Fold this sequence. Notes:
The complex is a heterodimer.
Chain A: H1 5-48, H2 54-57, H3 71-102, H4 107-119, H5 124-138, H6 145-169, H7 173-181, H8 186-213, H9 218-222, H10 256-264, H11 269-303
Helix pairs in contact in A: 1-11, 3-6, 3-8, 3-10, 5-6, 6-8, 7-8, 8-11, 10-11
Chain B: H1 13-25, E1 51-62, E2 65-76, E3 80-84, H2 91-97, E4 108-116, E5 119-120, H3 128-134, E6 135-138, H4 149-158, H5 165-178, H6 182-185, H7 198-210, E7 216-220, H8 228-241, E8 246-250, H9 254-260, E9 263-268, E10 271-277, H10 278-283, H11 288-294
Helix pairs in contact in B: 1-5, 4-5, 4-7, 5-7, 7-8
Amino acid sequence: MDISKQTIEKHLSGNRRFDAFFTVVGLLSTFVGMITLAALLFDLASDGLGRISPQFFISFPSRFAAQAGILSAWVGTVLVMIVTALAAIPMGVGAGVYLEEYAPKNWLTGLIEINIANLAGVPSIVYGLMALGLFVYQFGFGQSVLSAGLTLALLILPIVIVATRESIRAVPLSMREAAYALGATKWQTTKDHVLPYSMGGILTGVIIALSRAIGETAPLITIGALTFIAFLPDPPIKGTFPFISFDWLWSPFSVMPIQMFNWVSRPQQEFHLNAAATGLILMGMTLLMNAVAIYFRYRFRKRIKW
Amino acid sequence: MVAIGTNGWNTEPLGGMMNFQENIDAPKTKPLALMKQPDPTRPEQAQVERSIIEVQDVNFYYGSAHALKSINIEIPEKKATAFIGPSGCGKTTLLRCLNRMNDLILNTRLTGTVQLDGKDIYDSSTDVINLRRRVGMIFQKWNPFPKSIYENVVYGLRIVGINNRGFLDEVAEKSLRRAALWDEVKDNLSKAATDLSGGQQQRLCIARALAVEPEVLLMDEPCSALDPISTAKVEELIHELKDTFTIVIVTHNMQQAARCADRTAFFYLGELIEIGDTAKLFTAPEQRQTEDYITGRFG
């Protein structure tokens, strides 16, 4: 071996060159993503920004592009998201907690784990087909807000489960040991320690999952969402006893991406502007949700250290 | 009022509390006054040594690894017993068998019996939750919950449904005093526990364990990550606590065993080599391996 000072020096300068090279490659890759996003936003904004006004939010769709709005679409989106969240969060977090804290580690739970990972990769339209058969026809929920919410809940369930498990796994074993050593039961340990300490990660996962659901179009078209709807579902809060109503669950609906899809497929240029405006709002909502997720993560991480 | 099972508060709690107030201020020279339940039938000085834990023929396996080999050991009540030995000798494993903490580790197996007050804790009728209330544990790395100091100390009471603020306040103060932490934190009980120094956090964990009034306190190398001053504080604490509680301490530090423990057990490669009075084990060990270890020839 001829390990002379010179060969080492040669290797070192090679290493330095590779370092510099990788910095450039990494920077370029980052820029490609950033620039694409910026271009997309700019394109949507240049087309749609002019259409965004208070009137746009409180108008129903119309034959006349200038009078059309997204009232039924955003109300539909909000209602569907409420159903999705109410169904997906308890089920997903519950399943995650069970798999991580309670389930014995054997071939069956191993199989379940692999299945959940695979479910996350199933195309969304397949969920739509399943929901059409199951919720719409079998359970008789019809082409309703309820069917749509449950469909999207199933779609994001694997994401919520995986996020829950990851954040639960980040809670050190020493916390569980401390609780068990004081005579806490498994449920007390989970409820008092494991869940609160992993709440930041779980919330982040839930919000990211919901922001994926909010843009889903294909499964909702499959179960029969309307593309033109000029009325609102029954309001959930009433002025008379019992003040609360669940009739909206059974109402037909549209959501923002479907409204967008409808307008894009029209020949008239003016409707395309409406679609761009809707896209801009949808994107704003998604970014806002992600910002909230980041804020939660920051807040909880700051408060908890081991 | 509240009954808390067999953890020493079967008596009416507030009456018991008043006793403790006196006890805290009692001088160290009267150790028997600190006892939880003084037994009037027992003569003060000629205290009969009684074993609270009896380990009989215990073998322990991690998968196929044989970690403990036919261990027989008795832990005397209200004394400090130290487990010493080189890394991997099984002392921590044995300690964790005493409150079934090893149940949390997958793929482990134990044969033999471990009796607490004459009852096998590995019997299927044993309530593990209650066992762990009677046999508390301090871990090598302090592990306070990321909550306030106060909530850490009273957690063991909250989980049995005690939420009476006045009672919790008293227990918190008494436990923190016993753990020699009260004076340092009394003005900041709502402060985050994780903002304390390492030594304070470890004493907080001791206070948290004491708050549920265990009969036995297991300490797994409680000072291994502490600086000498904090170590001295914890050792002093062990000295005081052993009059009230039975203490089992695992340590790598032979001086610590010599300073704190009444009895010392030496383990090597999963076997109990020798157990005896600390003074005797360190001055006149019976086994060659013990002598080699304590004189620093290996380990």
